[in-house]
Design a protein that fits this description.
The protein has 367 residues and is α/β, with parallel strands linked by helices. Helix content is 33%, strand content 13%. It contains 13 helices and nine strands.
Length: 367
């Protein structure tokens, strides 16, 4: 279905968006923050920690003029989301990723049902992903099936560090996780998004290690594993794993929002490593909306290049590179039709192509 000029949608994981900049009109897929409609969390949080706010320090990594007050961050509205993401944020379609965290949020941080309800109010704006947790056993399998049937989900968001009844996490290598991966395939799910990145208190850093992705990606070659936050801070571990697994993708949520403005040299290193080892066809934008707004991230990335010749041994970044990362790769993963005028020209490669991964000798790096 073609939606050439529709502005579309989000929630913690992808969106297709069109950048309306005169120098580079491109379609982009973005990952937006799962915090949409997270209202009144102080009242529902079961284990409050006085004076703490897991996310506000990271917000400071954006430009000062984009910072929200803590009051706004704790209770932003549906109208705020629609304006920030779709009216101001260049987003056409967003992928909503649920995060439950029910050890701390009695009603869930943002659930499939809550995201789905919002998508029904704004048809065509959101792709509604669901989730599963292997520790939920048969009941979890039934819930997964019901969610796929109810919301048409073709992707899931997994949170391996989530606490549950005394357990402080799980891995994709667990036998129970394999039951859910098999069920996901059976239900037609194609995209497995996995949170592997910065840790927030009290979650365990090692529960976000990327080594389990390697194991599962090899055994489930027909599933796409999009590693959100690219395993930061273990960027080398992620790159050396992803380069050998054709079905592993780099999800750039947190990478652009957390590093591009605050740590420009480290951002250049991370992007260079990803482009060298993983490749531009396997990187997807994510805005982490709620923590950061997409507008400044997209505008900054459209204008971005390496800051100096120090980075000359990394692959160059072209307009086609940015089009793929900002939208075309994710659009391909989710089967979202892209208007002809926003597609790539001949010879620009195939977005999201597994076979184009790796190939150190093919990336055109100047060595």
């Amino acid at each position: 279905m073609s939606r050439p000029h529709q502005r579309r949608t989000p929630e913690e994981d992808l969106c297709t968006r069109r950048t309306a900049r005169s120098t580079s009109s491109s379609t982009a897929t973005c990952t937006t923050g799962t915090r949409a409609r997270r209202t009144g969390w102080p009242a529902t949080r079961t284990t409050p920690r006085a004076g703490s706010s897991a996310s506000t320090p990271t917000r400071d990594s954006g430009p000062p003029e984009t910072h929200w007050s803590i009051e706004h961050f704790q209770k932003y509205s549906e109208d705020d989301l629609m304006k920030d993401v779709f009216e101001d944020g260049y987003v056409d379609v967003a992928v909503f990723q649920p995060t439950y965290l029910k050890e701390w949020y009695t009603e869930g941080f943002n659930t499939t049902e809550r995201n789905g309800a919002l998508s029904e109010k704004h048809p065509g704006k959101f792709v509604v992903n669901t989730r599963w947790d292997p520790r939920e056993g048969d009941a979890g399998l039934r819930e997964l099936e019901e969610n796929v049937k109810r919301w048409g989900s073709t992707g899931v968001k997994l949170y391996t560090a989530e606490w549950r009844e005394g357990s402080r996490g799980w891995t994709l290598k667990d036998p129970e996780a394999y039951r859910f991966l098999e069920k996901s395939q059976e239900l037609g799910i194609k995209n497995i998004h996995i949170h592997k990145g910065p840790t927030i208190w009290p979650l365990d850093k090692d529960a976000f290690d990327v080594s389990d992705v390697d194991h599962a990606a090899t055994d489930f070659p027909d599933l796409n594993f999009i590693v959100e936050h690219v395993g930061l801070p273990r960027i080398e571990d992620f790159c050396f794993m992803a380069t050998q697994e054709p079905n592993v993708y780099a999800g750039l949520s947190v990478v652009i929002g957390g590093l591009m403005h605050a740590r420009p040299r480290f951002f250049a290193k991370v992007m260079g490593e990803l482009l060298f080892w993983v490749g531009e066809d396997k990187m997807t934008f994510g805005s982490d909306y709620g923590i950061w707004e997409p507008k400044w991230q997209i505008e900054g990335f459209v204008d971005w290049d390496y800051p100096s010749d120090e980075f000359s041994d990394y692959p160059r970044v072209t307009t086609d590179t940015k089009k793929k990362i900002l939208g075309l790769n994710a659009a391909k993963l989710y089967g979202i039709e892209v208007p002809a005028e926003l597609q790539l020209g001949a010879g620009a490669g195939t977005p999201a192509a597994q076979e184009s991964a790796v190939g150190v000798s093919d990336v055109g790096a100047v060595v």
